[in-house]
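ugh ok fine here u go
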Amino acid sequence: MPIAFLAMISAGVLLIDQISKFFLKDTNLLLIPGFIKLTGTTNTGIAFGALSDTVWLLPLLTGLVTMSIILFIVKTKPQGLMAIGLALIVGGALGNLIDRLIYGSVIDFIELLFIHFAIFNAADIAITVGCILCFIAILFLKEEAHV
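structure:
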């Protein structure tokens, strides 16, 4: 899969993430009663607010992990689900990294009302879907299909 195509996937995720955060960061809107609400908030930590006291550590780790994934993509030229999964992870990680560098926290806005769960954003969705695709590629596809 061409690296330029994977870069476009990452850039698309980044664009969707940053535009949605810009417009929804101060939102308080019930979309579907009992199901989903847009609730603008910030998170200085990672999932569920963990590591929220490490202001400098999270951007550093995010940057290092993201650069490692990019180098892995360039060096190994993954294919199929693995390639798309990694591109989604990079785009999402860059979206949240930009927030941390500019605001000192990540902007979240999607709140699920039918379960008690953290408020999240488009970057988080891309990272989660990307991880799932990578796991599927590793567990169920032939070795040569994912590296």
